[in-house]
Amino acid sequence: MDEIKAVVLAAGKGTRMQSEEHHLPKVLREACGRPLLAHVLDQLAFVPRADTVLVVGYLHELVERAFPGYPTALQEPQLGTGHAVLCARKHLEGFGGTVLVCYGDMPLLRREVYERLLAAHRAAGAQCTLLSGTCEEDLPYGRVLTDGDDNFVAVVEDRDCTPEQKAVRDLNVGIYAFECPWLLAALDRLRCDNAQHEYYLTDVPALIQAAGGLVKVRRETLNEQILGVNTPEQLALTERCLRQRAQDGA
Predict the structure, then answer these.
(1) Whose CA is closest to 12, among 44, 52, 57, 50?
(2) With contact defined as beta carbons under 8 Å apart, do 59 and 137 qualify?
(3) What angle do CA 141, 203, 99 make, to 5 degrees?
(4) Which one from 16, 89, 122, 219 is the annotated catalytic residue?
(5) Where are the alpha helices (DSSP H) in the chain?
(6) pLDDT tens digits along 79-107
(7) Does residue 16 carry a catalytic annotation?
(8) What's the CA angle centered on 27, arms 220 and 117, to 5 degrees?
(9) What is the pLDDT of residues 151-208, one digit of tens each?
(10) SS3 state at 52
């Protein structure tokens, strides 16, 4: 496999999960007796531990203690997903390979999905490849718009979608493969001129495309795999899905 580094975004507090009451960052909340982040890292085991960067923030010492041997980058304050990746820059400078960006609170996403994303990225010779997923549930995720050849056109947030765009079933999963030099150059051009004054990773594909890079979309049928854990209800659902997998031997 070509050179790969992974950047796992794991800085969140988990306010909607009442994680403060548990004195834990969100990624250390447990499903089936193990932290959410442990389930994610299991699926990323094809990337060497030394090349898997954890972007940490809230109660970061607990994450660092729970996952020794992983390089970490501190995001403080937390100014968006683009800013989170920017915080990992010291681990990416001078690297010429592919960077897989993913989330520490998506424990249901399987290793094969990551691997197929990377394979499609390499096969296309792209500078950026987004993962988009379909799901039977009606989720308030951004829509990934493409042309007829799976080339990226735009990501439109759910609240901004026209009725036609609402009908698009390609949901933005927030997981990307980037060629590292293109990623770092785009992060340098990222702006925070939005209502939240945050730096969004969703803006990076368009910046790479504007600079002449090829940006592709990898479609997958994901269903429950697309779920991030943001509420107690989603944590309970995740645990049920993981238990079912264990029973099915999958």
Answers:
(1) 57
(2) no
(3) 95
(4) 16
(5) 19-22, 36-43, 60-66, 81-87, 111-124, 163-166, 180-189, 204-210, 232-248
(6) 999 999 999 999 999 999 999 999 999 99
(7) yes
(8) 20
(9) 999 999 888 899 999 889 999 999 999 999 999 999 999 998 887 889 999 999 999 9
(10) strand
